[in-house]
């Protein structure tokens, strides 16, 4: 027999949990289905196990979407302060690490325990280890009920919320199920791609730079396809480049053109060298070692030796350091990506409620939607905000 609910939510991640809580508060009978053996697996591994649960400086400019205006409504209706209030009500200690990033003092499990308690208080029914095999909508009946078929049970409700996430981190259960459902119901998809992900060098660059794995330095990362720039650390890996600056710019990389790295932010090295006196390769090397880690400085000089001690040679060397052009071979892929960019086209959804414009009662929230945050707690804030808006519409 079909078990009847007011709302069925697929996916007990950040967005699904928030939606369930809000729906439950509105006295709706909410069923939350999760294919994994516990809720919030992505929450638990985020932020090195401390969960960077929001960012104080959240603004629409911190998100990537084919429609940059879509997220504005949800972000305005559920702000970082709203989630912080919830955290404080549950007496969870937290701190600001940097750049507005808020982390738990103890562990990410504080956040999942909080959300689980809120679900209980709101009367939400959570079913774990439940894999959905099919979703149907009965168009013949006036109520247009959705039927969700699991392995051992069948559930029906007039509202279905898809909060199944993206393709990132398959080892914790990421699948393309949400995209398949969207296509099944005739919704357009912006092609998914790995975002907030390490970049892989070409074979030539791997031979040249990858033995520097573990070396880190501050850079400004940019691409010609966006006005966004990121001044943070870059890290050499055994395959290419990583670190916060690279993860950030990876979300904007078009997969074809080079990325640009300023290796000496805010420094005029040519002027510094002229002011010090002798202008030769040894003094240039000494200066580079002040700006870059020693191993990287030495390798840089081997690769790009100083072409004389003239003003022009110094200017060229300085310019090259501020505009290192790297053409990656690719990314580390979904297995290492923190999020998935792309997803359900926002033109298909109401910005206020996240409901499909084509299919009444069908909602998409969180990462499965074509809204992707920058590094630093923004993706969680989108999850809370989109989940809240859908929950309020139940």
Helix count equals 13
- In CATH, the homologous superfamily of the largest domain goes by the name FAD/NAD(P)-binding domain
**Radius of gyration, rounded?**
24 Å
**Overall body shape:** elongated
Number of strands: 23
For the record, the count of structural domains works out to 2
Strand content range: 15-25%
List keywords for this structure.
single chain; about 400 residues; alpha+beta; FAD/NAD(P)-binding domain; Elongation Factor Tu (Ef-tu), domain 3; 2 domains; 7-stranded antiparallel sheet; 5-stranded parallel sheet; 23 strands; about 30% helix; elongated
Tell me the layout of helices and strands.
Elements: E1 2-4, E2 7-10, H1 14-25, E3 30-33, H2 41-45, E4 52-55, E5 63-64, H3 72-77, H4 80-89, E6 94-96, E7 101-104, H5 109-121, E8 125-127, E9 132-137, E10 146-150, E11 154-157, E12 159-162, H6 177-184, E13 189-195, E14 199-200, H7 203-209, E15 216-222, E16 229-236, E17 240-242, H8 244-250, E18 259-262, H9 269-276, H10 281-291, H11 294-303, H12 311-322, E19 324-326, E20 330-331, E21 339-344, E22 362-364, E23 372-373, H13 378-392
Parallel strand pairs: 1-11, 2-3, 2-12, 3-8, 12-22
Antiparallel strand pairs: 4-7, 5-23, 6-7, 9-10, 10-11, 13-21, 14-17, 14-20, 15-16, 15-18, 16-17, 18-19
Helix pairs in contact: 1-5, 1-13, 10-11
What can you tell me about this protein's structure?
- With 394 residues, the protein is of the alpha+beta class.
- The protein has 2 domains: 2-193 and 341-392, FAD/NAD(P)-binding domain (3-Layer(bba) Sandwich), CATH 3.50.50.60; 199-331, Translation factors (Elongation Factor Tu (Ef-tu), domain 3, Beta Barrel), CATH 2.40.30.
- Helices cover 31% and strands 24% of the residues.
- It contains 13 helices and 23 strands.
- The chain has helices spanning 14-25, 41-45, 72-77, 80-89, 109-121, 177-184, 203-209, 244-250, 269-276, 281-291, 294-303, 311-322, 378-392, and strands spanning 2-4, 7-10, 30-33, 52-55, 63-64, 94-96, 101-104, 125-127, 132-137, 146-150, 154-157, 159-162, 189-195, 199-200, 216-222, 229-236, 240-242, 259-262, 324-326, 330-331, 339-344, 362-364, 372-373.
- The strands form 6 sheets. A 7-stranded antiparallel β-sheet has the order 19-18-15-16-17-14-20. It has a 5-stranded parallel β-sheet with strand order 8-3-2-12-22, with helices on one face.
- Helix 1 (14-25) packs parallel to helix 5 and helix 10 packs across helix 11 (294-303).
- The longest helix has 15 residues, at 378-392.
- The radius of gyration is 24 Å and the shape is elongated.
- The chain starts with a strand and ends with a helix.
- The model has no long low-confidence stretch (mean pLDDT 95).
């Amino acid at each position: 027999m079909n078990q009847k609910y007011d709302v069925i939510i697929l996916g007990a991640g950040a967005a699904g949990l928030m939606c369930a809580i809000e729906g439950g508060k509105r006295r709706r009978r909410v069923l939350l289905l999760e294919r994994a053996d516990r809720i919030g697996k992505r929450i638990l591994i985020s932020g090195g196990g401390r969960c960077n649960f929001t960012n104080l400086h959240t603004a629409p400019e911190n998100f990537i979407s084919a429609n940059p205006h879509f997220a504005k409504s949800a972000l305005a209706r559920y702000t970082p302060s709203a989630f912080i209030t919830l955290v404080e009500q549950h007496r969870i200690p937290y701190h600001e690490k940097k750049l507005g990033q808020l982390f738990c003092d103890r562990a990410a499990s504080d956040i999942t325990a909080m959300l689980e308690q809120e679900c209980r208080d709101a009367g939400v029914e959570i079913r774990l280890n439940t894999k959905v095999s099919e979703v149907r909508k009965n168009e013949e009946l006036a109520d247009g009920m959705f039927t969700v078929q699991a392995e051992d049970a069948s559930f029906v409700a007039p509202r279905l919320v898809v909060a199944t996430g993206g393709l990132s981190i398959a080892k914790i259960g990421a699948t393309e199920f949400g995209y398949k459902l969207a296509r099944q119901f005739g919704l357009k998809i912006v092609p998914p791609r790995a975002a907030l992900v390490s970049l892989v060098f070409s074979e030539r660059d791997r031979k040249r730079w990858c033995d520097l794995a573990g070396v880190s330095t501050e850079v400004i990362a940019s691409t010609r396809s966006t006005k966004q720039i990121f001044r943070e650390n870059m890290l050499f890996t055994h395959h290419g480049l990583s670190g916060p600056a690279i993860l950030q710019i990876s979300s904007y990389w078009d997969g074809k053109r080079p990325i640009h790295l300023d290796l000496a932010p805010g420094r005029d090295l040519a002027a510094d060298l002229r002011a010090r006196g002798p202008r030769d390769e040894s003094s240039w090397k000494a200066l580079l070692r002040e700006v870059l880690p020693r191993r990287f400085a030495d390798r840089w000089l081997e690769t790009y030796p100083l072409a004389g001690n003239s003003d022009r040679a110094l200017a060229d060397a300085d310019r090259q350091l501020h505009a290192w052009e790297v053409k990656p071979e690719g990314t580390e892929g979904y297995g290492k990506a923190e999020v998935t960019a792309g997803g359900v086209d926002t033109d298909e959804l109401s910005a206020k409620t996240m409901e499909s414009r084509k299919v009444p009662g069908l909602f998409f929230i969180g990462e499965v939607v074509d809204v992707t945050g920058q590094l630093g707690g923004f993706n969680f804030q989108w999850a809370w905000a989109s989940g809240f808006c859908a929950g309020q519409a139940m």
